[in-house]
């Protein structure tokens, strides 16, 4: 199997879309990620996967904190901006949760302190202990990603 075939197979798994953020006290740093999941309820733990060559890799190692913003169906341009695929014609609006920047109007925000980091091939898995959660009460659908394209779910109750 080659890299292209592997990527193609992984693209068959529909995911939600998040933006991972942190701040070094001067600047806000962010990246788009769909490699995010909950790990444990007690204690509350989540994990993100970051390429070892990405700027975010060093920023999380430095700050020992990160936030996850779960994007809504109208935020594909924000995802593309943080994936370095598109320049926005406006600035990204942030809110603050526990001193960390989060994407305004996202479905939910989660802040984390870095618990552990695990090297896994060309990525590192950052296990975060959840320090804060905020849920946006506006009824919006999640932004999804499938076969290299953005979408959303058709309906939910």
From TrEMBL:
Single GO MF annotation? riboflavin reductase (NADPH) activity
Q: What is this protein called?
A: Flavin reductase family protein
Occurrences of domain Flavin reductase like (ranges)? 10-152
Q: Where is the signal peptide?
A: none
* UniProt keyword terms in alphabetical order: Oxidoreductase
Which source organism does the UniProt entry give? Fervidibacillus halotolerans
Which Pfam families does this one have?
Flavin_Reduct
**SUPFAM superfamilies given in the database record:** FMN-binding split barrel
Under the heading Gene3D superfamilies, the entry gives: Electron Transport, Fmn-binding Protein, Chain A (2.30.110.10)
Could you confirm whether the keyword Oxidoreductase appears in this record? yes
């Amino acid at each position: 199997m080659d890299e292209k075939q592997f990527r193609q197979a992984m693209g068959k798994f529909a995911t939600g879309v998040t933006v991972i953020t942190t701040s070094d006290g001067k600047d806000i740093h962010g990246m788009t990620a769909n490699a995010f999941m909950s790990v444990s309820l007690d204690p509350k733990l989540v994990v993100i996967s970051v390429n070892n060559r990405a700027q975010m890799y060093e920023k999380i190692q430095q700050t020992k904190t990160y936030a996850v913003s779960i994007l809504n169906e109208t935020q594909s341009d924000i995802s593309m901006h943080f994936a370095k695929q598109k320049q926005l014609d406006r600035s990204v609006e942030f809110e603050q949760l526990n001193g960390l920047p989060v994407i305004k109007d996202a479905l939910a925000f989660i802040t984390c302190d870095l618990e552990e980091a695990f090297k896994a091939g060309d990525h590192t898995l950052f296990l975060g202990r959840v320090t804060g959660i905020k849920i946006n009460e506006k009824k919006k659908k999640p932004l999804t990603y499938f076969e290299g394209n953005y979408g959303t779910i058709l309906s939910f109750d």
